[in-house]
Design a protein that fits this description.
The chain has 259 residues and is of the alpha/beta class. The chain has one domain: Rossmann fold (3-Layer(aba) Sandwich), CATH 3.40.50.1820. It is built from seven helices and ten strands. It has helices spanning 2-20, 62-65, 74-79, 100-115, 130-141, 195-200, 247-255; strands spanning 28-30, 33-38, 49-55, 81-85, 118-128, 148-152, 168-174, 207-215, 218-227, 230-237. Belongs to the faeC family. One of its GO terms (molecular function) is feruloyl esterase activity. One of its GO terms (cellular component) is extracellular region. Residues 1-19 form the signal peptide.
Length: 259
């Protein structure tokens, strides 16, 4: 019993030492690249942590993500280990299968697991703009089991073929997006931005859940699909190209059953 206790203690000490090397604005190195992370408030130092892997928008870095007022807040700040890889030259290689950034992000998660105990049943992947495109690419081809794909104002072509699928897919897009135009389907189909996942995950008919608000000044129209292999949710709003207040933390909270 004493030997087992000492072994567990040494393991915890090792994790703590590795974790202390980087956090917040101090990047963690993975080869010649890096990422940032934020430990949730009030973590007990022992319990396995859900993870949110977030791909930043074009021209940004993970140092912004871990202090972002629309990402690192609410259920994310309170309950989730936020992991933010740094794209090369502020960008991501998402356009074709076999992305170098999929391999990089997998290496990032492996490095995180050396520093912190992670809950592998609750790994979330999110992204904004080109980062959302990369989040789709990562989930599409990564070997990581993803509990939820949370994409903001970005997708891949709906004609892509994906080897993998998340347990839940949640997408938000603005009809007035002037940067990455809303991917309207044939005949003005506003559900087309998630057509790939609806087919891949074996979804039935969509159910309109009506209007909802995270903040009073922006209204979402939600459609939900229950699927053979999970669930797909699409939130559409009349605005443009931005991360809506509280949207990412709310999705994390709902999937984790905290909300």
């Amino acid at each position: 019993m004493t030997r087992l206790f000492l072994s567990a203690l040494l393991c915890l000490v090792g994790l703590s030492a590795a974790a202390a090397e980087c956090a917040g604005q101090t990047p963690c190195a993975v080869g010649d690249r890096s990422y940032h992370l934020r430990v949730p408030d009030g973590w007990d130092g022992v319990s396995p942590l859900p993870v949110l892997l977030h791909f930043h928008g074009w021209g940004r870095q993970g140092s912004l993500t871990v202090r972002h007022g629309r990402i690192a807040v609410g259920y994310v700040a309170e309950h989730v280990l936020l992991v933010a890889p740094n794209g090369l030259n502020g960008s991501w290689a998402f356009r074709r299968p076999g992305s170098r950034d999929t391999d990089f992000a997998e290496a990032v998660l492996a490095d995180v697991a050396k520093r912190y105990p992670i809950d592998r049943q609750n790994i979330f992947v999110s992204g904004y703009s080109w980062g959302a495109n990369m989040a789709w690419r990562f989930v599409c081809e990564s070997r990581v089991a993803v509990a939820g794909l949370l994409a903001v104002s970005g997708t891949l072509s709906q004609r892509e073929t994906c080897a993998r699928a998340p347990r839940e897919m949640r997408q938000v897009f603005g009809l007035g997006d002037g940067v990455l135009a809303f991917p309207m389907g044939p005949g003005g189909d506003q559900t087309y931005p998630v057509a790939l996942w609806r087919q891949r995950m074996g979804c039935g008919e969509g159910v309109s859940e009506g209007a909802w608000n995270a903040r009073p000044f922006l209204t979402f129209e939600r459609t939900r699909w229950d699927c053979a292999d999970g669930k797909v949710v699409l939130d559409v709003h009349p605005g443009g190209h931005f991360i809506p207040h509280d949207w990412i933390p709310i999705q994390v909270g709902e999937i984790l059953g905290l909300r």
